[in-house]
Amino acid sequence: MSEDREKARPEDTVIAVEGEDDAYPMGAWRAWATVAGTFLLQMCSVGPVSSFGVFQDFYTTSFLTSFSASDISWIGSTQLFLELCLGIVGGKLYDAGYCRATIVGGSLIFTFSFFMLSLAKPDQYYQVFLSQGIGMGLGLSLIFVPTCTLILHHFRNRKALAMGILVASAPLGGIIFSIILNQLIHSKPGFAWGVRASAFIITGCFTLGHALTFVPPRLQSPTAVGVNKESSLRYPPYLLTLLSGFIAQLGTYFPIFYVQLFAKDHNVTQTLMFYSLAIMNVGSFFGRIIPNFFADRMGAINVFIVCVALNGLVGFAMLGCGHVVGLVLFCLLYGFFFRSTISLYLPVVAALAPREADMGKTMGVAIAPVGISSLIGPPIIGAILGPNMVWWKGITFASVCLSSASLIELLVKYSVSRVQ
To answer: Which of 28, 63, 94, 257 has its CA 20 to 30 A from that of 354?
Structure first.
């Protein structure tokens, strides 16, 4: 089996593109233009999800006051669930040759849903849930996996770095949209026009992003490659990586959803409370790129293990961050390691894929369990916190999940070493 997998490594798969070179199958200019285009697409789709803490705070205190924090967190977690769990649909469509149509369709659904959110009325939970939870989540599911897979097909030697740059778009989008939304929905324009202004920005960025994106020709049929089609789905290190991603994601989004409420409960200044998510996304931006740069040199799985373990340790530190300096440091450090664990998860999965022709399916299947834990994680933590917001319970649960995931990934490294 190890010999079959060695023959089928993605780096050895040839894409029949005229004039290809070793590093860039479609040429360097098209590769980096596609990075820029997909960067814009993810910045304006995944980015607003990274700003959900703004909505969580606003809905809990002003807009959906008849509902608990746990009820409201279902909106954000449903977005994540659909984005990730239905990513297998986007991946299969990509493998079938419908990359462009899939991403354009997802962009239209996402933009339409964002505009519909601006029409939601106070205390009408179903209106917010349908537009933000269901609609935007469906749009995301058709954007995220195809754009990630597209990048992997444009690069041979710098996949982790290219992926790191791509996923750095989410924290940048989180910075931009958290500032815009906090400034607008809490002032004269209000919720409706704050959301509409964001939707207009998203429309413009989507248009430019599609113009910059180049789709490679479809790879040769999987049946033409002499490898078991389902080999990755029965490969123990791959399955353990899925388990690691599932457990990590149960706790990963806790600060993203709840940091503004945490700051408010600890009497931090309103200015810092509003900018806490933006500060976290500053750390996230660098956390998407720097670890991925080293991953190309030291191995994605090695850097992934370190980042997940440190993410768990920083999570525990939130217990002592009920003051200005501590909160700022926590937001920067947690943002850095939180995003690095997400950006490195995909290169680890890609390294375990049996064939480049099946990359979309392999990525989609790997993201599905992460989507399930993203759905149930924030509401579970909301229930653990309870109506009185007992912060140490939620912090402990989230940090233990991350620490456990790093131990599982250590087992993956050991398993891969034995196979090789």
So the answer is: 28
